[in-house]
Automatic annotation (TrEMBL), chain A:
CDD domains: Ubl_ThiS. SUPFAM superfamilies: MoaD/ThiS (SSF54285). This is Sulfur carrier protein. InterPro entries: Beta-grasp_dom_sf (IPR012675), Mopterin_synth/thiamin_S_b (IPR016155), Thi_S (IPR010035), ThiS/MoaD-like (IPR003749). It comes from Fictibacillus solisalsi. It holds the Pfam family ThiS.
TrEMBL record, chain B:
The active site is at K96 (schiff-base intermediate with dxp). Residues 3-248 form the Thiazole synthase ThiG domain. PANTHER family: THIAZOLE SYNTHASE (PTHR34266). It is found in: Cytoplasm. This is Thiazole synthase. 1-deoxy-D-xylulose 5-phosphate binds at G157, A183, G184, N205, T206. It comes from Fictibacillus solisalsi. The keyword rRNA processing does not apply. Pathway: Cofactor biosynthesis; thiamine diphosphate biosynthesis. Keywords: Cytoplasm, Schiff base, Thiamine biosynthesis, Transferase. Its main location: cytoplasm. InterPro entries: Aldolase_TIM, Thiazole_synthase_ThiG, ThiG.
Length: 66, 254
């Protein structure tokens, strides 16, 4: 499946849900916040949200700032 | 007690988490500052580096109230998106609205700040707008229903201190919500002055993280804010042009 993740076009196999993608990128448990096709997902939606070919995914987190 | 929306704090220092030399220094500085509110930003994760450091893991974020900012936003819509991303973490309901209108001075755009604040209030956020030290803008933000107003002392990271103490004191005088002086603080004296002017709190970052000894400066800021607050509550003497003797003028043994 082709996904655009944080602006990078990637070919990712074996991934069905947003949660799968976070695990595949080894970002589980690191406070990832996900926006799928410009719609922001709550944490509880990660497991149930299914990805489709061509989806645009933004993965953000908290960084130091003032 | 500092009360912002439904939150109550005994510390009046809000500390930013940017630009510390390393996470250990940051942790220690946060610790000695006594702060209960930490600010931070929302940015893309590096999806190619699973081992990137995460400051929340180092800090035990559950001990603090988190105040994400919308830094990086140039419009109200961008600020609203960042605020919603932060809230989707499930870790916070407060938002520091920061809409920068000019990237040389990093001064906030008053019109977009007002618009973003209105939208976020309607979305149920606890809204703390970072604004310029304009007295009427502060009034309009308060009329919208924001939970605190955060006028800048001087441009972000400049360390110039309070450029216009008159405006800060006028904002304090008219406000019925907390006034938190945000940005531009350089030294403990600046922070103490903000508090002596009647501010309810001070938000600073670079003054601590950029100090030669951030941990010592964190302690200094804590004490300065406490001293300034006590001085404000105590009520200072009026300034006079001529001397008034402290010792009795009568009964001299000559």
């Amino acid at each position: 499946m082709k996904l655009i993740v944080n602006g990078n076009t990637m070919e990712i196999a074996r991934v069905q849900t947003v949660e799968d993608l976070i695990k595949e990128l080894k970002l589980a448990g690191k406070g990832a916040i996900v926006e799928l096709n410009e719609e922001i997902l709550n944490k509880s939606q990660h497991a149930e949200t299914v990805l489709a070919n061509g989806d645009k995914v933004e993965i953000v987190h908290f960084v130091g700032g003032g | 007690m500092l009360k912002i929306g439904n939150h109550e704090f005994s510390s009046r220092l809000l500390l930013g988490t940017g630009k510390f030399p390393d996470f250990d220094v940051q942790k220690e500085a946060v610790n000695v500052s006594g702060t209960e509110i930490l600010t931070f930003a929302v940015r893309r994760m590096n999806i190619f580096d699973p081992d990137q450091p995460n400051f929340l893991e180092k800090l035990d974020a559950s001990k603090y109230t988190l105040l994400p900012n919308t830094a990086g936003a140039k419009t109200a819509e961008e600020a609203v998106r960042i605020a919603k991303l932060a809230k989707a973490s499930g870790l916070c309901d407060m938002i520091k609205v920061e809409v920068i209108g000019d990237f040389k001075t990093l001064l906030p755009d008053p019109v977009e700040t007002l618009r973003a604040s209105e939208i976020l209030l309607n979305e149920g956020f606890t809204v703390l707008p970072y604004a310029s030290d304009d007295v009427l803008l502060a009034k309009k933000l308060e009329e919208l229903g924001v939970h605190a107003i955060m006028p800048g002392a001087s441009p972000i990271g400049s360390g110039l201190g309070i450029i216009n103490p008159l405006n800060i004191s006028l904002i304090v005088e008219q406000a019925t919500i907390p006034v938190i002086v945000d940005a531009g603080i350089g030294s403990p004296a600046d922070a103490a002055l903000a508090m002596e002017l009647g501010a309810d709190g001070v938000l600073l970052n670079t003054a601590v993280s950029g100090a030669e000894n951030p941990v010592k400066m964190a302690k200094a800021m804590k004490l300065a804010i406490e001293a300034g607050r006590l001085g404000y509550e105590a009520g200072r003497i009026p300034k006079k042009r001529y001397a008034t003797a402290s010792s009795p003028l009568e009964g001299m043994s000559v």
